[in-house]
Amino acid sequence: MFSLYTDAATQPQTGLSAGGILIIHDHQQTQLSAPLTATTNHTAEFEIARLGFEKLATLATDPAHTTVLFYTDSQIVNDSVAKHYAKHYQHLVDDLLAAQAPFQLVLTQWVPEKQNRGAHTLANQALHSAEDVK
Prior knowledge:
Layout: E1 2-11, E2 16-25, E3 28-36, H1 41-59, E4 67-72, H2 75-83, H3 90-100, E5 105-110, H4 117-133
Parallel strand pairs: 1-4, 4-5
Antiparallel strand pairs: 1-2, 2-3
């Protein structure tokens, strides 16, 4: 079983976004951050979640027999995955569901930001780095 936490950070004035990914398996953490192409926070949340599952697929020995506990502080990501639908973000929902498809079971849970501190911190660090480069 893997636990996957993702979070995105966006600077509205510049349109820069970055995300953080925290993967926990067998009491070991994998921490990743990445600049994102998204220019709004909602799209950034979907993008980093997809990237998190893509990375997890490379780490899991056998995704078809792997359960993932997916934690997000994005209400729209949580609701959209549950419904397999989002009025303005359907292509992003489809991309995320496709990234989840290789796994045996994905249990998605919304968590408050304070319970997603690891991914949140990684996202903010990556955003500050992106701002420094720009």
